[in-house]
Amino acid sequence: MKINRRIFLQASAALALGRLSAPLRAAPESKSPLPVILATDIGDDIDDTWALGFLLNCRELSLKLVMTEYGKSVYRARILARFLQSTGRADIPIALGLDVEPHGEGPQAAWVKDYDLASYPGRVHTDGVGALIAAIMNSPRPVTLICIGPMPNIAAALEREPRIARRARFVGMDGSVRLGYGGSKTPCAEWNVKANPAAARKGLSADWDITITPLDTCGLVTLEGARYQRILNAGNTVAATVMENYRIWSQANQVAGQVADHSTVLFDTVAVYLAFAHRFCKMESLPLRVTDDGLTVMDHHAKKMDVATAWKNLDGFRDLLTHRLCGGA
Fold first, then answer.
1. What CATH number has the domain bearing residue 285?
2. DSSP 94-158
3. How far apart are CA 18 and CA 284, in angstroms?
4. CA spacing 20 to 30 A to 166: which of 117, 253, 277, 303?
5. Which among 149, 140, 147 has a CA at the least distance from the CA of 167?
């Protein structure tokens, strides 16, 4: 059930008083900034970095905590810390995820090789799962959890404190319904699900309101031409920091030549968008189940979720993404 702003604010008040007992149905496009938590495997694919920059420039969202996902917790936290500090947002706490595989670093390591996480002016939580739970349970308003990576920490948080599902809604970049990578007509096991199917199954069947962008929509988003050149030459701090990371990432992946004229596929930016608006997307309520091999298949016994299955206006989203990354309100 979709709700209007009045009912959303009633839910916020009920949460503040500890009375919320039904799963949260938070309305997109609220007129006041929505408190959000970002769970990210930043430092592997570059799209997480683009998504973070986009989120910071979205007036509709208020980032309360960012948590590393899927191992490499210190490496990922250093990227987050330097990015937030570089863009004047060191007020945002960082939470280190579980020390699970994979370990080590990744293609943005050169950007943080001299950065000491202890120098971050904001707070760094070593118990990331606990920090996530506390941020949700102690929030005076319902929280939107934006998950743009695999979900071992989300699963651990649900196991430790199941009540978070009644005090938050989930927006994720997950799955493949009718299209696969590159617009293929064959659905496939999308990475965020395939990397840890058991954790994804727990996250995508929990008792919270779920909205996802599968490959059907997020897999089609790139920036090139005039839009890309605007960002490349924007000069504002967020855009410059994104592009600095993109150059380093591209060099590490031996594709440095592409930085001059186009982005990679910006999967995760769509999840950030769906946290506050749906108007550019065709949304369907679909019952999806995660299989052991990481597929997201329709099953009438499975939990229903709001799924962005197609674009109504992909160019409209590209324009919005460009405008925000360039510092537009």
1. 3.90.245.10
2. EE---S-SS-S--TTGGGGTT--GGG-SS-EES-HHHHHHHHHHT-SS-EEEEE-S--HHHHHHH
3. 31
4. 277
5. 140
Q: Is 172 inside any structural domain?
A: yes
Distance from C-alpha of 234 to C-alpha of 224, rounded to nearest angstrom: 14
pTM of the model: 0.92
Q: Are 163 and 48 in contact (CB under 8 A)?
A: no
Query: Mean pLDDT highest for which of 2-11, 22-31, 104-113?
Result: 104-113
Q: What is the pLDDT of residues 32-66, one digit of tens each?
A: 899 999 999 999 999 999 999 999 999 999 999 99
- Residue pair 54/276 in contact (Cβ under 8 Å)? The answer is no
Enclosing domain of residue 139:
29-325
CB atoms within 10 A of CB 31: 6
In one-letter notation, the amino acid at residue 246 is Y
Residues 73, 105: contact at Cβ < 8 Å?
no
Q: Is residue 21 part of a domain?
A: no
Q: Say if 190 falls within a structural domain.
A: yes
Query: 3-class secondary structure for 248-260?
Result: HHHHHCCCHHHHH
Total number of domains constituting the chain: 1
> Amino acid identity, residue 147?
C
What local confidence, expressed as pLDDT, does residue 235 receive? 85
CB-CB neighbours of 138 under 10 Å:
9
Assess if residue 137 is contained within a domain: yes
Q: Quick one: which of 179, 221, 176 has its CA closest to 194? A: 176
Q: In whole angstroms, give the CA distance from residue 145 to residue 132.
A: 9
